[in-house]
Design brief:
mainly alpha, flat, 4 helices
């Protein structure tokens, strides 16, 4: 794990992990899968997009909230960020699932669900690679 140094050259904080790269990688994969689904129709491709974004947006929120603060002096803020991130992730996921039922265009909910589920192992692999690379 890399360590950032303070102005006096001492080790003051642990560098923040580049968690935004996980969301960026997921978005890239989602765009490719959505494009690959286009020959099956706009409804299927839109359903892939909705399912993927239903997973990606809440996890990006969690990453933002959980990793805003670093350092031993900020432990209470880090813990609070994890709690707020998790609560926000659950609320956002529920809200996005409800929103998917209210879209002005039709979606195939089986495809939405399958894409959401497929994004889970992708997320886990990307996070594992990120943290493995940082050590």
């Amino acid at each position: 794990m890399s360590v950032a140094t303070g102005s006096e050259g001492n080790m003051s904080t642990i560098a923040k992990p580049a968690v935004h790269s996980v969301a960026s990688a997921q978005l890239t994969v989602l765009l490719l899968i959505t494009a690959a689904a286009m020959p099956f129709g706009v409804e299927i491709a839109g359903s892939v997009w909705v399912g993927g974004m239903t997973h990606l947006i809440p996890h990006a929120w969690f990453a933002h909230m959980a990793y805003r603060h670093t350092g031993a002096r900020q432990v209470s803020r880090v813990v609070r960020g994890f709690y707020l991130g998790q609560a926000g992730k659950l609320i956002l996921t529920a809200a996005l699932v409800v929103a998917a039922t209210k879209l002005p265009f039709s979606v195939n909910f089986l495809v939405v669900f399958i894409t959401f589920i497929v994004m889970v192992p992708l997320y886990l692999v990307l996070v594992a690679k990120l943290f493995d690379r940082s050590q």
